[in-house]
Amino acid sequence: MSAIVSAEGVSQVYEVKRGLFAKAAGLKAVKEASFTVEEGETLAIVGESGCGKSTLARILTMIEEPTEGHLTIDGIDISAGRSSDVKRLRSTVQIVFQNPYGALNPRQKVGAIIEEPLKINSKLSRAERREKAKDMLAQVGLRPEHYDRYPHMFSGGQRQRIAIARALILDPKILVLDEPVSALDVSIQASVLNLLADLQDRLKLTYIFISHDLSVVKHVADRVLVMYLGRPVEIAPKAALYSEPKHPYTKALLSATPATNPDDRGERIRLTGELPSPFDPPPGCSFNPRCPHANERCRTERPVLTEHGPTRVACFAVDEGRI
Amino acid sequence: MPLLTIRNLTVTFDTASGPFKAVDSFDLNVDKGEILGIVGESGSGKSVAMLALMGLLPPTATVTADELAFEDHDLRTMSGRERRRLIGAEMSMIFQEPMSSLNPCFTVGFQIKETLRIHLGLDRKARQKRAIELLESVGLPEPERRLSAFPHQLSGGMSQRVMIAMATACHPKLLIADEPTTALDVTIQAQILDLLVDLQRDRGMAMVLITHDMGVVAETAHRVVVQYAGQQVERQPVETLFDEPHHPYTAALLSAIPERATGDRLPTIPGVVPGQGDRPDGCLFNPRCSRADDRCRTIEPPHQSDALGQALCHYPLNTEEAA
Ligand SMILES: Nc1ncnc2c1ncn2[C@@H]1O[C@H](COP(=O)(O)OP(=O)(O)OP(=O)(O)O)[C@@H](O)[C@H]1O
Ligand SMILES: Nc1ncnc2c1ncn2[C@@H]1O[C@H](COP(=O)(O)OP(=O)(O)OP(=O)(O)O)[C@@H](O)[C@H]1O
Ligand code: SF4
Ligand code: SF4
Ligand SMILES: [Mg+2]
Ligand SMILES: [Mg+2]
C-alpha cells in the first residue's frame, strides 16, 4: 500500500467578524494536521462537533485551500501542481456533504442533480447520462420514478442517498464521506454501508469517513483519526483504538457511546468542564480543561503526536507513563 | 388525560404524479412528562406527521385526523392565530435539519431573541441575558460572541444546539425532537440528552424523540413506537423492545445495528419501502418479510394486544415471552 493522500502541517484559519466595529479574529478550524491515507483503506475521522472535521473534508476535496501546509493527492501537490492536474483531481476526489438538504439544489430535479457532474466531466450523450443516473438511483436503493422529483419531496435519509449517488457517478478514486449515514435509519444505514463496502472492494476506492458514531466507525474503518479542537490527537489502527484507546479524549468518546441495551443506561462516563473556545484555545494541551489527568505541564506545553506501538498519540500522560 | 392525542392522522401530498399518502392512519398518545421514542425506516412519515401536528406543512398537503388534541385544545378547529400561540410556547419542535431551519439572513442572536420577544414578551435587556443563558445551557462555547454569528459560520452540531436553545426557550410542555443529536459527537450528545432529560424530569416536559440511533433510544426513551410505511407497526416499553420485538420489521431493524452484527456485511432488509404505485395488498411489509404467506398478502393484519406490542401482524414474534 502507498499513501494516496498525504497532509503535512495543514491548517485552516477563518477570519470571523465579531461585530460591526470589532477587529476580525482568526479562528483556526484545523491546526497543523499531518497524516496520510493509504490507497484502498478507510480512514475514519471522529471528534467533537466543531473540531474541524468538515473543514478538513473541504480541504481534502479542494473546495477550500488550506492557509498553511502541504497536501499531496494521488501524487500531485495541490498547492504547487499545474492547474490541469488539479482539475483532474477534482473528479478523483468526491464528497458527500454532511447536510444533504443544503447540498442539493431545490430547483433541480433529482435526475439533473445526479447527472450534473457527468455533464461537466464526461462526453456521454443525454440518453447515456440518463441511463447511468437511473442505474445509480437503483444502486443506492431509490426508485426509478424518483428521477423526476424535486429534493424537497424526499425524507432526510432519501436525500442522503441522492447525495451518495451524485458523488459516485464520476467513479472517483477517493470518496470523502461527511457523516454519510447519520441521517439514515439502521436498515438503510446497513445497506448503504454494505454498498460502500462493495464499491470499495470492486473499485478499490479509498474512503475518508467522517462520523461521530463509533459503532459505525468500528464496523467500517481500517484506521481511525481522532480530532480535538482542530488537531489530530490520536491516530491508530482500528483494533488498537478500540481495545486500547490511549488519549483521554478517545477514552471518553468510547465510554459515551450509547449501547443498545436499555439495562446499561446511565453507565457512561461524562466529561465535565467547559468546551474550549476555538477563538482562543487554552494554552498547552487543548484538552486540559476537561481532562481528568491534566497537570501543570499539560497547561503550559503542547503535546505532539508520538508513536506508542501501532498508535500515534499526543498526550503527556501517555508519554510519561502516567496512564 | 394524555398530553397529546393523535388518532388516525393521514397526510396526503399533491404531487405531479398524483396524490401521495405520506402518513397513513397514524396514532400516537403522549403522556405528560414521558419520553416517547419513534423509530422507523427513512421516509416512513415520522417528520411529516410531526410537521402536520405543528401546522407547518406546505399547502400541497391535505391533513385529516379523527382526533388531534393537545390537552383539551382541539387542534383541528383552532384558528391559525391560536395555534401559533400554542406552538412555540406550549409545544415546540427541534427540526431534523438545523441548517435549513435557521434563517441564513439573520444572526443567531436575533433569531433567539425574536422567539423570546414574541412568546415571552421580554424586554431588550432580559432578552439578551436569557439568550446568553440559553446558549450556555446547551454547551455552546462563548455564547456572547456566538450571538452575532450567522448560521453558516457555525458547525453542524453548533447549529443543532442553537435550535435546541430556541425550542426550549419558553419551557414547553411538549418538545418534539426530530433527530436532535444526529450531528453531534457522543460526548456532546450525552450532554444534550442529559439536558433534555433534565428538562423532562424537572419541569415535567414531555418529549417525542425521533431518532435512528437505537443506542439513544435505549438510553433515553421510556416507550418506543416503530413506524413502517406511514403506519405504526409496534409499540413497547423500551425495557422489552430490544430483547422481545413482536413485529418482524422491528426484529429486522434491530439485527441491522452494527453493534449487534457479526461479519463484514450487515444484515439488511431486502427491497424498499413501498412507493405510491406499489402499495401491496394485505400487510404493507409482506414483500420484504421472510414470514409472509398468502394470508399476509391478502388480508390486512390486525393490531395485536398490548402484551404483544400492538404488533400490526398476523404472526407476531416472541409470543411465549409475552404470555
Ligand atoms: N466559513 C466559516 N467561517 C467562519 N468559521 C467557520 C466557517 N466554517 C467553519 N467555521 C468554524 O470552524 C470550526 C470547525 O467547523 P467544522 O464545520 O469543520 O466542524 P465539524 O468538526 O465538521 O463539526 P460538526 O461535527 O458539528 O459538523 C467551527 O468552530 C466553525 O464555527
Ligand atoms: N412536500 C412533500 N411533497 C411530497 N412528498 C413529500 C413531501 N415531504 C415529504 N414527502 C414524502 O413523505 C414521505 C415521508 O417523509 P418524512 O420526511 O416524514 O420521512 P421520515 O420518516 O421523517 O424519514 P427520515 O427518517 O429519513 O427523516 C417521504 O416518502 C417523502 O418523500
Ligand atoms: S496532555 Fe495532559 S491534558 Fe492533554 S490529554 Fe494528556 S493528560 Fe490530558
Ligand atoms: S403480517 Fe405477515 S407479512 Fe406482515 S409482518 Fe406479519 S408475518 Fe410479515
Ligand atoms: Mg461537520
Ligand atoms: Mg425525518
Automatic annotation (TrEMBL), chain A:
<dbReference type="GO" id="GO:0005886">
    <property type="term" value="C:plasma membrane"/>
</dbReference>
<dbReference type="InterPro" id="IPR003593">
    <property type="entry name" value="AAA+_ATPase"/>
</dbReference>
<comment type="similarity">
    <text>Belongs to the ABC transporter superfamily.</text>
</comment>
<dbReference type="InterPro" id="IPR003439">
    <property type="entry name" value="ABC_transporter-like_ATP-bd"/>
</dbReference>
<dbReference type="Pfam" id="PF08352">
    <property type="entry name" value="oligo_HPY"/>
</dbReference>
<dbReference type="InterPro" id="IPR050319">
    <property type="entry name" value="ABC_transp_ATP-bind"/>
</dbReference>
<dbReference type="GO" id="GO:0015833">
    <property type="term" value="P:peptide transport"/>
</dbReference>
<dbReference type="InterPro" id="IPR017871">
    <property type="entry name" value="ABC_transporter-like_CS"/>
</dbReference>
<dbReference type="Pfam" id="PF00005">
    <property type="entry name" value="ABC_tran"/>
</dbReference>
<dbReference type="GO" id="GO:0055085">
    <property type="term" value="P:transmembrane transport"/>
</dbReference>
<dbReference type="InterPro" id="IPR013563">
    <property type="entry name" value="Oligopep_ABC_C"/>
</dbReference>
<dbReference type="InterPro" id="IPR027417">
    <property type="entry name" value="P-loop_NTPase"/>
</dbReference>
<feature type="domain" description="ABC transporter">
    <location>
        <begin position="11"/>
        <end position="254"/>
    </location>
</feature>
<protein>
    <submittedName>
        <fullName>Peptide ABC transporter, ATP-binding protein</fullName>
    </submittedName>
</protein>
<dbReference type="GO" id="GO:0005524">
    <property type="term" value="F:ATP binding"/>
</dbReference>
<keyword id="KW-0813">Transport</keyword>
<dbReference type="GO" id="GO:0016887">
    <property type="term" value="F:ATP hydrolysis activity"/>
</dbReference>
<keyword id="KW-0067">ATP-binding</keyword>
<keyword id="KW-0547">Nucleotide-binding</keyword>
